[in-house]
C-alpha cells in the first residue's frame, strides 16, 4: 500500500520517490496529480510541454524506465519507485546530446513546441535500435505531431544522429 | 487539464484488488496503464470516486509458454510488450503484429491487454486475433475465478460480463492445430487511428485443403463477432483464389456495421469482403503472420 499523509482539510497526499534525470526526488502529491503537472509545477521541469493533454500529440513525452510515454496520461503516484527522463536530462551538462546537435544542424524544428517530445522519442528509439531505417524513425515519432509539418528535416536529423553515433 | 479528486488505492494482491472493488462497488474503477481511463476522466465521461491501481500486481506482467496450456499473457502486459515479445514472434507473430498496429509508440508503452479487452470498444485491435486463435480469458473476483472463451466476454459496446468485483487477470492462447493466422486492420491513417474494420483469421491447412477455419471481425458490430457461416463454408474445401473470394463475400454478408464519421456501413461491408480474402491468403501461405 502506498504511504500517505492526511492534510488539515482531510485530503490524502501520497509520498512519491522517483528518480528524474539521475536525481532522486521525494515529494507528496495528491492522487489526481498527473506526471506532466508534477514535472512542470512541482519540480519546475518546464521543458516537457502540454499540448492536447489527451495522449494524441506527444508534446509531453518523457521516458518512463527508458520507454517513451505520454506524461499527461500517467498519475504521478503511479511512478513511485520508477525512473523518468525528461528533455532536461538528455544533454550531459553543457554538452548537447547528438540528437539535439543534429536537430540544430538539420533545422529540425520551427516553432519548437513539439521538439522536446520529438527528441525524447528519437533518443529512446536510438537507445533501442542504433541503426533504424527511415520507416522505423517515422514509426517512432508517429505519436509526436509537428504542426509546422517539419517532418522531413526531423527524420533526416534522427538518421544523421544514428549515423554519427555509429562512428 | 486537471483531474477531479478521487480516492486512490494500490493493492498488493489480486485478492485485495477484488476486495476493494467489491467494497466500493460502482464508485470504483481499475487503472492499469491509464491511456483510456485518464482520457475518459478528462473528458468527464467517467468520474470514479475511487481508482484502484493494479501497478503492484507483478504476476500480471508475464508472457510465457506453459506446456499443455498454451501461451499465457498477463493482463498488465502492454501493447509494446506483445509487439516486441520473442515468444510471440516465434509462435504467433499475428498477435504481435496486431498489437504493433495499435495507436502510437507512447500509448503502446502504457496501454495494456487487460485494458484493451475490458473497455470492450468494438474497434479494439486485440480481441479479433485472440478470438481467431480461440483464446480464453480468466476473470478473478472475490468469490474465485472463472475462465471463458474471449468471445463470450463481450455483451455490447463498452459492456462485458465482468462483475463489479472482477478483473481480467490473463488471456491464454491454447496450443493450436491452426497452421496460420493473420489480422488486417484498416485505419484512416497509418498510425494512431482506430480500426475502421479489423479482420482476423486462423486456418488449419493440410495438403492445400482447409481442415478448420476461424474468422473474427472487429468494428463491424456491437462486439467483435465470429463469421461462422464463412468458417463452415471453408471447411473441407481445397484452397483456390475463387474459394477465398467467395469466403470474403459470405463474411461481408455476416457483419452488421454502422455508418459513422469514419466510414459508411456499405464501405465497411466491402472492406470485410476484401480483407477476409487477403487475411486468409496470408494465413494459408505464410503461417502465423
Automatic annotation (TrEMBL), chain A:
User: Domain 2Fe-2S ferredoxin-type spans what residues?
Assistant: 14-90
Which InterPro entries does its entry note? 2Fe-2S-bd, 2Fe-2S-bd_dom_sf, 2Fe-2S_ferredoxin-like_sf, 2Fe-2S_ferredoxin-type, Beta-grasp_dom_sf, Diverse_Oxidoreductases
**PROSITE patterns cross-referenced by the UniProt entry:** 2FE2S_FER_2
Tell me a Gene Ontology molecular-function term this record carries.
2 iron, 2 sulfur cluster binding
Q: Could you confirm whether the keyword Oxidoreductase appears in this record?
A: yes
Q: Which EC numbers characterise this protein's activity in its record?
A: 1.2.5.3
Origin: domain of life: Bacteria
Q: Which Pfam families match?
A: Fer2, Fer2_2
Metabolic or biological pathway:
Alkaloid degradation; nicotine degradation
**Membrane-spanning parts:** none
Does the record carry Oxidoreductase as a key word?
A: yes
Q: Which UniProt keywords apply?
A: 2Fe-2S, Iron, Iron-sulfur, Metal-binding, Oxidoreductase
PANTHER family referenced in this protein's UniProt entry, alphabetically: OXIDOREDUCTASE WITH IRON-SULFUR SUBUNIT
Q: What is this protein called?
A: Carbon monoxide dehydrogenase small chain
Q: Which organism is it from?
A: Pelotomaculum propionicicum
UniProtKB/TrEMBL annotation, chain B:
What GO terms are given for molecular function?
A: carbon-monoxide oxygenase activity; FAD binding
Q: Which residues form the FAD-binding PCMH-type domain?
A: 1-178
Pfam families for the chain:
CO_deh_flav_C (PF03450), FAD_binding_5 (PF00941)
Q: Has the keyword NADP been applied to this entry? A: no
Q: Please state the Enzyme Commission number of this protein.
A: 1.2.5.3
Q: Which InterPro entries match?
A: CO_DH_flav_C, CO_DH_flav_C_dom_sf, Diverse_Substr_Oxidored, FAD-bd_PCMH, FAD-bd_PCMH-like_sf, FAD-bd_PCMH_sub1, FAD-bd_PCMH_sub2, Mopterin_DH_FAD-bd
Give yes or no: UniProt keyword Isomerase: no
* PROSITE patterns hit by this protein: FAD_PCMH
**Keyword annotations for this protein?**
FAD, Flavoprotein, Oxidoreductase
Q: Which superkingdom does the taxonomy of this entry point to?
A: Bacteria
Instruction: Look at the named UniProt entry and state the broad enzyme category this protein falls under.
Output: oxidoreductase
What SUPFAM superfamilies does this protein map onto?
Answer: CO dehydrogenase flavoprotein C-terminal domain-like (SSF55447), FAD-binding/transporter-associated domain-like (SSF56176)
Identify this protein by name: Carbon monoxide dehydrogenase medium chain
The species this protein was found in: Pelotomaculum propionicicum
